[in-house]
Design a protein that fits this description.
heterodimer; A: 310 residues; mainly beta; Porin; twelve-stranded antiparallel barrel; 14% helix; 46% strand; globular; B: 138 residues; mainly alpha; 8 helices
């Protein structure tokens, strides 16, 4: 499924404008440069979630570049693929900032750039506790054709994605998204709960959502030898997420919900791969979605940039 | 897109600048009466006396060395002698600490001072790193 979807995605990219192609190629060049040894890599301590956040932030000064995508089946419309690029930077040990660029391509329709997001995560407590809170604030400037589904809130429904791109892209979304992230580590397991509140900066009400994730490495202790395919490099987990209505109508009726198992593979070189099939849990959800991601972490990125100005 | 490029660049530059100015604040490193860095010595009493389950296991030291190279060497240097603001881990300010204190410090970090929390690593791997750190004294 994923290979077929990838091939179809490659065909869809032909529809992007030259400008969008240039923007899209920048992270690919950066990842290529990093993989070819142009940068020192670092192995991150990550969870394999796509939607849920844990309290583990980016290490200070490190930059992680991630290319991710979602393939979604559409009940009354055309299937789609929505890729996004993340630049995640550890500004402090207690503050991670992240910038996203989103695209989407809908089969038998068109492909387009759908906007950007800028998020910040802060750890208010400096020590480690049973439950560790993280405060999340994000600004989104996207259009109505965005299909990345990085979060599901309010009455988000699969029917929203059946609207033709030419119509959907007319809607501009300037949104403020907040999350309370609660996360715990226990005997190798990570358990994370996210409570989401999203506000369109127009007149719409607050939209609420949730995400819960559980994950664990296949092997807790490390082996003495360096290895790529050993169990310690693999993480498995699952997440469940969905909408909770709005401040005008807080309900589960008419909301969509998903469950998604996942596998992550973290290489000692600093590269990591994730894949996660997701299954809709009711009629308002997409029946099937598939997410995948490739990331690479560059250590000491901030230090190198600063050294350029000294 | 271009109208957002300038403010985004300025915000990122601000983040780098704040990170840079922290160098000056990380000069004083107070220690307790054992000569252990206070940031490590503030570990709770019950964790101070915890024993390393991998104590005396050469494989754990090797595994800890591998983990150190993956996660710690970027700041502390591949020989653990420190660089920039990151501590020289051969010093008595670290080596005089108990294994329990070191594991606690790895788990909690010192976020205000730039040391990240390594709670995302399983406890077993943190103990393996402690085994490697303690092997540096020999």
């Amino acid at each position: 499924m994923s290979f077929a979807a990838f091939c179809r995605y490659a065909l869809l990219l032909r529809h992007l404008t030259t400008r969008s192609r240039l923007v899209a190629s920048l992270p690919l060049l950066l990842v290529g440069w990093a993989l070819l040894g142009g940068a020192q890599s670092a192995a991150a301590q990550e969870t394999p979630y796509f939607v849920t956040y844990s309290h583990h932030l980016e290490e200070p000064g490190n930059l992680e570049i991630e290319l991710s995508s979602i393939y979604g089946t559409q009940k009354q419309g055309n299937d789609f693929i929505a890729p996004w690029v993340e630049f995640e930077y550890g500004a402090k040990a207690w503050w991670t900032t992240e910038f996203y660029l989103d695209w989407q391509g809908t089969f038998r329709d068109s492909a387009l750039f759908t906007g950007f997001r800028w998020e910040n995560r802060f750890r208010p407590l400096m020590g480690e506790h049973w439950i560790n809170p993280v405060l999340y604030v994000e600004y989104e400037n996207t259009n109505g054709a965005d299909k990345t589904m990085i979060e599901v809130v309010g009455f988000d429904s699969q029917a929203d994605h059946a609207v033709p791109n030419s119509v959907a892209q007319q809607e501009h979304q300037h949104e403020l998204e907040t999350k309370l992230i609660l996360s715990s580590d226990y005997k190798g397991w990570n358990i994370s709960e996210n409570f989401i509140g999203e506000k369109n900066l127009g007149h719409d009400p607050w939209e609420f959502g949730y995400a819960v994730g559980v994950s664990r490495p296949l092997r807790l202790a490390a082996t003495a030898d360096s290895c790529n395919f050993c169990r310690e490099n693999f993480l498995v987990g699952a997440e469940i997420y969905g909408g909770l209505g709005t401040s005008w109508n807080a309900t589960l009726s008419g909301t969509s919900h998903y469950i998604a198992p996942m596998v992550g593979w973290q290489l000692p070189s600093g590269a990591s791969f994730r894949i996660s099939p997701g299954f809709g849990l009711n009629d308002d959800s997409h029946r099937f979605i598939l997410r995948w991601g490739l990331s690479y972490e560059i250590d000491g990125f901030g230090h190198r940039v600063r050294s350029l100005f000294r | 897109m271009t109208r957002f490029a300038v403010p985004i660049f300025l915000l990122l530059a601000l983040a780098f600048a704040i990170e840079g100015s922290a160098d000056e604040r990380y000069k004083a490193r107070p220690t307790d009466d054992r000569g252990v860095l206070l940031a490590i010595a503030r570990a709770p009493q019950k964790t101070r006396s915890s024993l390393n389950p991998y104590d005396g296991q050469p494989d754990a030291v090797l595994a800890g060395k591998k983990l150190f190279e993956q996660h710690c060497a970027e700041c502390h240097g591949s020989n653990a002698r420190g660089q920039g603001r990151a501590m020289n881990l051969h010093l008595s300010a670290v080596q005089n600490a108990t294994p329990g204190e070191l594991e606690w410090f790895l788990r909690n970090g010192n976020l205000w001072r730039g040391m990240p929390s390594w709670s995302g690593l399983p406890e077993q791997r943190r103990w393996q790193i402690v085994a490697y750190l303690k092997s540096l004294r020999r």
